[in-house]
Write a structure and sequence with these properties.
single chain; alpha/beta; D-Maltodextrin-Binding Protein, domain 2; 2 domains
Amino acid sequence: MAIRKRGVLAASVTALALAGALVGCSASGGDAQGSGESGAAETVKIGVVGASDPYWETFTEAAAAEGITVELVDFTDYNQPNPALSEGELDLNQFQHIQYLADYNVANDDDLVAIGATAIYPLGIFSTKHQDLADIPKGGEVAVPSDPSNRARALNVLQAAKLITLTDGGTLFSTPAEIDEAASKVKVTEMDASFTATSLADVDAAVVNNDFVTDAGLKFDEALYQDDPEDEGAKYFINIFAAKAADKDNKTYQKLVEIYQTNEEVQAGVLENSGGSAILLQTPVSELQEILTDAHDQIKGNG
């Protein structure tokens, strides 16, 4: 399977409850928080959504070959990994896009940073009741994620699919309050991102974040519609590794990003897990920070 890569583009993501208890900090103690040059074996805790995805095993094996023990902490709810990282229960997390991180930082007066890009994924509309967008009835119900960044993106996807019309034209901050109901074909229901896929038996369609597509028994190529991850505006949805600001130059963490971005088996696994839909990225960290700062500024200006 050919690997799709882009040097500078954009991605999707997610959170609910810890799958396992978080206890204390990294087993590596001060070494993992420092330069990573001690030469001793280090353990790095990474919070993810979907630790059972096969490429994570490949990643941890590749890290072990470099003397780094990776401990994955699995979450099912997007709301947990950032607080866990901020409070020192994790060393890194990898589950979110830049816009989600920006929303979190502004809302919580935090300063988590992006230290590496992973991929950008299209955001799709799925249905188990209808085979085509045209089959969705007038007044039908469509589920969207309730967190602000993914909700706005989902609403823009629905507008592009001509299922709704937004009075604000569609922005990074669109909400259901901006839906012109008279000009829209469907009604929108918000719910936690982890539930949109499982709601498909009860709604006409749902916008499903990439983290939950496969686990719900869906296939990426079955989406009735999806946005274009290569569009310039998609840069805010680049998926990232996030760290505390004090750890942005940690060499061990940078090495883990390098492994993720350059190990051919890991990259092939990520692509396969996405049904071939991911655009794999090596966007420079300086550019990621510029996008994050821009997103912070826009959110503060919109508040």
